[in-house]
Amino acid sequence: MKKLLNTLFINQPDVYLSLDGDNVLVLKERETLGRLPLHNLESIVAFGYTGASPALMGYCAERNIAITFMTMNGRFLARVIGQSRGNVVLRKKQYRISDNDQLSARIARNFILGKVYNHKWMLERTTRDYPMRVDVPLFKQASAQLSLIMKDIRECEDLERLRGLEGQAALCYNRLFDHMILQQKEHFQYRNRTRRPPLDNVNAMLSFAYTLLAKDNAAALEGVGLDAYVGFLHRDRPGRISLALDVMEEMRGVYADRFVLSLINKKVVNERHFIQKENGAVIMTDEGRKTFLAAWQKRKQETITHLFLGEKIMWGLVPHVQALLLARHLRRDLDEYPPFLWK
Question: DSSP alpha helices (H): ranges in the chain?
Fold first, then answer.
């Protein structure tokens, strides 16, 4: 089992990353703000534009420590990784399946099946935990509708129809997302999904969480020898980590959405952690991102029972386990890809 190492998050826009021996230095105007040993890190995520030294990037590439650069509001810019050490046979199999819509659909439907299943149990868990605070019949009705959609997904072998079924399920789930926000309603409301840019506090947090989750899935896929840019559901587009977006579908609700809801409902974040720009875009403040990232790292250390493996693992290892299971399916060690299911 892969050991879960740390991720270094750089949250200031005006610092520079440099190499000193086996350590990464965090510099600001030639002053050293921090010094950390690289052997404890599996990735570095930098928010801002200042950059990193070529020596540091080369050192990290040789040791499979990914460096990801993002804008201050969490939009992905670039990722520095080392040479591919993956099995060429595995990648060739991935490319052949990606070029065949029917074969792609047989794998993609399990990504979506896992996503809808997990959304269903998020609704069920809400009715169990807060029966006096939510409209239970409304949630039960949506849960039943998701069950019906899952039956159609299980038999679907057409990508376009699969995307249509995913859209139906997403509409059913999104209608109740705001109902799961139980605290701070005056500052945190969800009406619809807005991106590029997010237009409210909730969407700003969702976009940030999805970006982090996509980064983790991309690293996990590359780690088992797969190409994170060649997907089965999300088709090829320059610069898009399509396979990472595929695999994270089943984790969006239980990993990212539940995390965002918990930060709001437990009042870990508040309205002071956000600012609205002149164009209407809402972004998190430096303090807000710091709070968010600290909680994200803590959540990754919590344990979850993986139903397919039948054992407890840390949340942060879920992307790595799913990447391994996908690789095993492509090698024909498994009859089909087993999605991550939560209940």
Answer: 54-62, 88-98, 101-129, 136-155, 159-174, 201-223, 242-251, 258-265, 286-301, 318-330
pLDDT in tens, 304-340: 888 888 888 888 888 888 988 998 899 888 899 999 9
Residue 336 belongs to a domain: no
Side-chain-side CA neighbours of 74 within 13 Å: the count stands at 28
Nearest to 198 by CA among 297, 108, 276: 276
**Domain check: are 73 and 107 in the same one?**
no
Please choose, from the candidates 127, 74, 128, 96, the residue with its C-alpha nearest in 3D space to the C-alpha of residue 281.
74
Largest CA distance in the chain: 61
**Domain limits at 13?**
6-85
Q: Yes or no: say if 19 and 78 are a contact pair by the CB < 8 Å rule.
A: no
User: Which domain-ending residue is among 39, 70, 85?
Assistant: 85
Closest residue by Cα to residue 265 from 143, 173, 179, 138: 179
In a domain, 324, yes or no: yes
User: Which positions make up the binding site for Mn(2+)?
Assistant: 166, 234, 249
Q: Which of 286, 296, 276, 290 is nearest to 200 (CA)?
A: 276
Instruction: Say if 342 falls within a structural domain.
Output: no
Residue 341 lies in a domain: no
Say if residues 139 and 179 touch (Cβ distance below 8 Å): yes
Amino acid at 43: S
Three-class secondary structure of residue 47 per DSSP: strand
Residue stretches of the chain with pLDDT short of 70: 1-5, 11, 49, 72-76, 83-86
Instruction: Give the residue from 256, 282, 292 showing the smallest Cα distance to 187.
Output: 282
Helix/strand/coil for 236: coil
79 and 110 in a common domain: no
The candidate with the shortest Cα–Cα distance to 332, out of 170, 35, 25, 89, is: 89
Q: Which residue has the tokens 């407890």?
A: 312
Mark the binding-site residues, compressed into ranges.
166, 234, 249
Pairing verdict, β 66-70 and 41-47: parallel
